[in-house]
Amino acid sequence: MKQFKRTTVTSALPYANGPVHIGHLAGVYIPADIYVRYLRLKGEEVLFVGGSDEHGVPITIKAKKEGVTPQDIVDRYHGIIKQSFEDFGITFDIYSRTSSPTHRQLASDIFKTIEQKGGFVEKTSEQYYDETAQQFLADRYITGKCPHCANENAYGDQCEACGTSLNPTDLINPKSAISGSVPVMRETKHWYLPLDQHEAWLRQWILEEHKEWKANVYGQCKSWLDMGLQPRAVSRDLDWGIPVPVSGAEGKVLYVWFDAPIGYISNTKELLPDSWEKWWKDEDTRLLHFIGKDNIVFHCIVFPAVLKAEGSYILPDNVPGNEFLNLEGDKISTSRNWAVWLHEYLVDFPGKQDVLRYVLTANAPETKDNDFTWKDFQARNNNELVAIFGNFINRAMVLTQKYFDNKVPNIGELTDYDRTTLKEFEDVKTNVEKLLDTFRFRDAQKEAMTLARIGNKYLADTEPWKLAKTDMDRVATIMHISLQIAANLAIAFEPFLPFSSAKLRTMLGMTSFKWSDLGKLDILSSGTELGSAELLFDKIEDETVALQVQKLLDTKKANEAENHKASPVKENVAFEDFQKMDIRVGTVLDCQKVPKADKLLQFRIADGLQDRTILSGIAQHYPNPEELIGTQVCFIANFEPRKLRGVMSEGMILSAEDADGKLILIQPKNTVTNGSQVG
Predict the structure, then answer these.
(1) Which of 23, 39, 68, 272 could pair with 72 in a Cys bridge, judged by C-beta atoms 3.0 to 4.6 Å apart?
(2) Domain boundaries in the chain?
(3) Which CATH number fits domain 121-190: 1.10.150.20, 2.170.220.10, 3.10.50.40, 3.90.1170.40?
(4) In the prediction, which pLDDT does 482 show?
């Protein structure tokens, strides 16, 4: 394995259209911060780069809704996000933004370099255009009826009711979200990154040269490569973003997926204008991207292809991507306010940043989605931080204060039990290092907690409070060893619990420390005067947790009330128009999930005339589709056939949404003849 001189660490740029929540912290920023703190403790040269992603359609949509400019939106949330990271001890060397002049210039320069090398392909295609607003429409600015579940408010990129990914042209009765008018198709030119031309080297570089990447990251990359890469647009018609820096591109900006990752480089340049290149162009620099699973493809396939096309940048050595964190069994959702926001957490739990850091690391979604619950939060605080870590430190401090005038006593002759105890914790450093080096932060924190367990057991077994009546030399040895274990804890937990570790070091009189001290028995010199004993952690009561749970329940009730109000009755239609719709009943002959399409089920229906195939975006609501075989469903028989995932869908299955958001198939109560019409 190659030895590097330095490490550049980046963490995914949070989108500046809202604050950050525990899902962001657990999936990206705590793991990155743990790793960076670990490298710094080892004395390694490391740069930690972050920043806000401030371009893209969701920001313009939010600005229009609020009647302000996109710059107003990003200025507001950039400040909130940056403060949240500072409050939780995320130690960026720089946290900047993609609206900075430095970023605008560098993103433009990288585009021009690739364009001059012939690295882009220009294509003219037809896209929706709003004649009233006089602008091309981004996918999110087009709404219409979903062809899968009939949701009337599907977006041009996805139906949020059934979760199916869409193209704008898939929508039925599309309209502009800006003016409400019916858009028309117009030709427009865009620049594309031909990922298909990069596929061969990407396949070799990832699948053959980086088999050490985490299984979830490697697997997602392999899936994309096996499907075959397609050219990807790097420009779009929009008025918010970095203008495409070539003639003939008026009214076009760089697509946010292209400019955002360049923010890592531009932020480095902003911090180190004279030496930034060594962090991005020197082959002795190791590049690491910490991200969530929704960004794996961009950081492992797309961004490396951009860097390769430019030609002078290093490629990532590893991309430790995590899965998603859920909240109380439900997916975290900004739009539904189903989240624990970091700035709100500190209002309810002042001074408890480390408790959240600890719990989120213990539940880190490292290989699969995981769940945060307030009950688990309380249990880990009370049963682990308070009862194990805090209890040991408090006993060691109080006993030293009581028997040795608050100074580290001399160590005497060791017993076999002392040697056994020391043997138990001498391997902790090696074990924690192995886990941190392979980005297994959850297990590393658990291993570090082993020190506190050893310390608690040591005090409980030796009972120095009893020996104080007869053998103070023995008590001195016990407390000396206990305080050395405490000092080891202050070092081992510095990457995980920085606030508590700093407090503990003050209590122990540790004026300096380094990672190489971990596992040693002489961190604290005999005679060192200790600080005042304080509780590192305190118990969280049932009432406190009950308030947080109730807050979420109130949010869920409010969402249900909002989502399930009867929608306004649509405009009247003529009876003749209704008669044009041919709704029939058919029997399900076969039903199975569509490969590589998590939302789609493929039905084979006996319709009384001939069998037909219909795709429907209800897979998440029917996890056992084979159970539908033999049942009857209602479907629109004369719906225009559409090809989805390479399969021709010949109709639309009818379903209704219940109070919990679950889609239920519309089915006749009694069996009827296949092909029977509904009317």
Answers:
(1) 68
(2) 6-118+255-325, 121-190, 374-517, 575-678
(3) 2.170.220.10
(4) 97
Distances (CA, A) of 454 to 73, 120, 152: 51, 60, 61
For 23, the 3-state DSSP assignment is helix
Low-confidence ranges of the chain (pLDDT < 50): none
pLDDT value of position 365 = 96
**CATH, range 6-118+255-325:** 3.40.50.620
Q: What token pair was written down for 428?
A: 């902790």
Instruction: Taking the CA atoms of 662, 667, 668 and 671 in sequence, report the sign of the dihedral they define.
Output: negative
Cα 141 from chain centre: 25
Tell me what pLDDT residue 151 has.
Answer: 85
C-alpha angle 347-353-356 in degrees, rounded to nearest 5: 100
pLDDT attached to residue 624: 87
- C-beta neighbour count of 138 within 10 angstroms: 24
- For residue 450, the model assigns a pLDDT of 95
Q: What is the DSSP-derived secondary structure letter of residue 631?
A: -
Q: Structurally, what CATH architecture does the domain formed by 575-678 represent? A: Beta Barrel (2.40)
CATH level 2 (architecture), domain 374-517: Orthogonal Bundle (1.10)
For residue 136, give the H/E element and its range: strand 135-136
* CA–CA dist 614, 654 (Å, integer): 11
Q: In what order do the strands lie in the sheet with 121-130?
A: 135-136, 121-130, 184-193, 232-233
Determine the pLDDT at residue 662.
76
User: 657 with 620: CB under 8 angstroms?
Assistant: no
pLDDT at residue number 567: 59
Q: Determine the Cα–Cα distance for residues 507 and 206; give it in Å rounded to an integer.
A: 48
Provide the pLDDT for residue 160: 72
